[in-house]
């Protein structure tokens, strides 16, 4: 199965290549269209001028020299012997072209490029079918857009910029679309690894009891199996909760007095460390009572597990937020591990030693619940032990 990163690379590559092909085709078509339009317009202007002066030649009213007009400044009248009879001042004494239209095709377009000189777009008109008929030439120097590759450079730069931008957008959009799949893939991979160990241990215990019934105490085997089953059950329940949180399932929300909720949770009988709660003022939030109870329960269980003599919970409001601090007086958490402990199935060595049956998902679930309530859960500095700080949007006016 290809990795999700390779899928993202593949989609981005395909889209980028497709865009590149399209912009190359469009850019080439645009380049040809612009060149044809500029060239055709130059020839049409020259044709109008050459027909005008041809009529003047036939009527015998041709001025000397011939004035330039309509942007066409290169005009010559050449007789049948190739002598310049009349011309515009800009042409000099050099013939614009040695081409003479045939009697049956009197009006023709030419592009003349003499060595060392700029190319000229000309229209030639034979005055009459007679052999001694003069020819009128009119034209203009080839525009720079046709004489250089500036147009191609501009189109190529625009095409490259468009390709890069669309490729980058495709990468971002594909990555955003695949992010949930990446998270599910990672969760499934980590979950399978974490479930494999207790299942393998359970199988080993049961197989040992079957293979060596005379050397194994059935009661001890059943107790160990039940302990392993409890851990598997805890992992499965936590995974289901994570799936609901990440699946967009919305639990019913209601106004909740966070101080009362904390006081009730702290007052729940527990055989371990004592917990002292301090509530300052009315602290109301809008959220799921069940999920917030789970979050507080996870924080209190974690604090009790690592405390030496007790746990302190402080509830107050500050800067438009409800703040809950859960502090223990244990060994604390190193700065390098403060974000790591919120990852799924991560359990530090001290936590494994104090509780071997934990799922390693409690803090990850707690942070996900905080995010689901548009809040944050972080570990902040403390003079002693670990200090977990929960911040949630405060309901004003309560």
Automatic annotation (TrEMBL):
InterPro entries membership? HATPase_C_sf, HATPase_dom, His_kinase_dom, HisK_dim/P_dom, HisK_dim/P_sf, Sensor_HK_Regulatory, Sig_transdc_His_kin-like_C
Annotated compartments: Cell membrane
Gene Ontology molecular-function annotations: phosphorelay sensor kinase activity
Q: What class of enzyme is it?
A: transferase
Listed EC numbers: 2.7.13.3
Cellular component terms per the entry's GO annotation: plasma membrane
SUPFAM superfamilies hit by this protein:
ATPase domain of HSP90 chaperone/DNA topoisomerase II/histidine kinase (SSF55874), Homodimeric domain of signal transducing histidine kinase (SSF47384)
**Name the record gives this protein:** histidine kinase
Query: What is the species listed in this Swiss-Prot or TrEMBL entry?
Result: Planotetraspora thailandica
- Cite the source lineage: Bacteria, Bacillati, Actinomycetota, Actinomycetes, Streptosporangiales
């Amino acid at each position: 199965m290809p990795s999700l990163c390779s899928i993202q690379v593949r989609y981005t590559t395909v889209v980028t290549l497709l865009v590149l092909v399209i912009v190359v085709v469009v850019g080439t078509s645009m380049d040809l269209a612009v060149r044809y339009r500029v060239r055709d317009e130059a020839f049409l202007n020259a044709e109008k001028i050459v027909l005008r002066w041809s009529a003047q030649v036939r009527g015998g009213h041709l001025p000397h020299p011939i004035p330039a007009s309509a942007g066409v400044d290169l005009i010559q009248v050449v007789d049948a012997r190739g002598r310049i009879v009349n011309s515009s001042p800009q042409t000099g004494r050099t013939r614009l072209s040695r081409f003479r239209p045939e009697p049956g095709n009197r009006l023709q377009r030419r592009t003349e490029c003499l060595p060392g000189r700029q190319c000229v777009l000309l229209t030639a008109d034979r005055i009459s079918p007679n052999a001694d008929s003069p020819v009128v030439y009119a034209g203009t120097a080839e525009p720079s857009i046709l004489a250089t590759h500036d147009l191609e450079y501009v189109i190529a730069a625009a095409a490259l910029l468009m390709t890069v931008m669309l490729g980058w957008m495709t990468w971002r959009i594909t990555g955003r679309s695949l992010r949930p799949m990446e998270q599910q893939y990672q969760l499934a991979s980590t979950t399978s690894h974490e479930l494999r160990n207790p299942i393998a241990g359970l199988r080993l215990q049961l197989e040992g009891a079957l293979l060596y019934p005379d050397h194994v105490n059935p009661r001890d085997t059943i107790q160990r199996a039940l302990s392993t089953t409890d851990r598997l059950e805890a992992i499965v329940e936590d995974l289901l909760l994570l799936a609901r949180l990440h699946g967009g399932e919305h639990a019913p929300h209601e106004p909740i007095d966070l101080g009362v909720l904390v006081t009730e949770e702290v007052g729940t009988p527990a055989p371990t460390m004592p917990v002292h709660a301090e509530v300052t003022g009315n602290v109301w939030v809008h959220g799921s009572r069940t999920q917030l109870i789970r979050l507080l329960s996870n924080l209190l269980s974690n604090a009790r597990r690592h405390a030496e003599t007790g746990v302190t919970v402080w509830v107050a409001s500050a800067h438009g937020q409800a703040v809950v601090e859960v502090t223990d007086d244990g060994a604390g958490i190193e700065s390098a591990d403060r974000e790591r402990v919120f990852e799924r199935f991560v359990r530090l060595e001290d936590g494994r030693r104090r509780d071997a049956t934990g799922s390693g998902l409690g803090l990850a679930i707690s942070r996900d619940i905080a995010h689901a309530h548009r809040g944050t859960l972080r570990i902040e500095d403390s003079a002693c032990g670990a200090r977990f700080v929960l911040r949630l949007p405060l309901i004003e006016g309560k």
